[in-house]
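Run: sequence + iron/sulfur cluster -> complex structure.
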Amino acid sequence: MTKRHPSEATYCSYLWQHACVRSGLQLQPCCRFVIDSKDSLPRLHQNFDNITKTINSEFQQDIRAKALRGDIIDGCEKCRRTEQKGGFSLRNLANREFPRQGDEGLLSQPEDIRYLEIFTGSLCNLKCLTCGPDLSTTWQSEFHSLGWSFNKTESVDADYSRLISQTPNLRQIKFVGGEPFLSRSHDQILDAIPGPMAEKMKLVYYTNATIWPNAKVLGQWKRFARVELWLSIDGLGSVNDYVRFPSRWSDVLANMTKYFEFASENPVLKLGVNCTVSIYNVFSVRKLEEWMIQFRSHYSPDIFHMFHLNPLILPAHMDIQNMPEGLKSEVDLDLNSEQQRNVMDHMRRREANHQLLPLLVDFTKATDRHRKQNVCDVIPEIASIF
Ligand code: SF4
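>> structure
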């Protein structure tokens, strides 16, 4: 049997070949990396003239050293937990996409970067219950109205063309928001990518499906090797509108139809649906998946790459693990669906933490009052909590 090198347990090619640029131009290894304080992250300049220095900061070198030694990396906790549960982590994906070269040291160069994740700012027209003011300007206004405090996310206008020109071997960009189709930085980044680079590049988006991209963006997509669009949908009809307030199902449906039609004519576009599963919508996911199967059956299977149910972990009071045990037993999931089986496994993994329930009740009642709605009307299955 081949002996497993100890560092394989923590080695992640993203630590060399991937960069995640947050709204304040702070740099972290990837979007799943957990940090206690954003202040500890190295920061890029607006014209990106310090990129080599930033990707080789003490912070980055320290993580790479740990990865090579096989030491536990605290920030990579989410990947570690997924692997411990037998799942396929982002680290596993990273190492499959960009296999280990074997000669990695502590340093990396801009030319080594193959994959960028860019936070395009917090401008967003929705204030989804599972999101917050750091990722949505609409949430920021509601926090103000409710008298709740929050740390304002710094938004920096940067010259992304300078970032693109220094990373010639880039093969993938993922846009993280806010809502990317409301972001000027997003349009500027697409403009900065030269034709030969675009031909080999994949773009990945997470969109709230209420904003239709402008004609220029739709035209730009045709220059790329692949455009992968994840539509964030957190329930069927009124449940989606409740969780993703103030979204309207009729708009979501109209845009979904347009996306499927655009993808039918433009094979570059591939669609997926991502549903963040929380206490609010766990009773709706079975209906959502059934509806999705029906909806996509009208189109070629090539268009659609995945329906993904992603159990929420934070905020913990919305995590289905912390739902009262009696309610857990009423959740009706289709165990023939791999995605719904994952949701069931996640929900049953731990006993509920009952201390978190008052937090959920207070938060929901406060937002309901402000939004002039009532959780019990929309999601009667969880009315007993309130
Ligand atoms: S191990 Fe996971 S969290 Fe850590 S850098 Fe890799 S992908 Fe990101």
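>> summary
The pocket of iron/sulfur cluster is lined by residues 12, 14-15, 29-30, 32-33, 76, 78-79, 90-91, 94 (CB under 6 Å). The beta strands are 18-21, 27-28, 115-119, 172-176, 202-207, 226-232, 269-277, 304-311.
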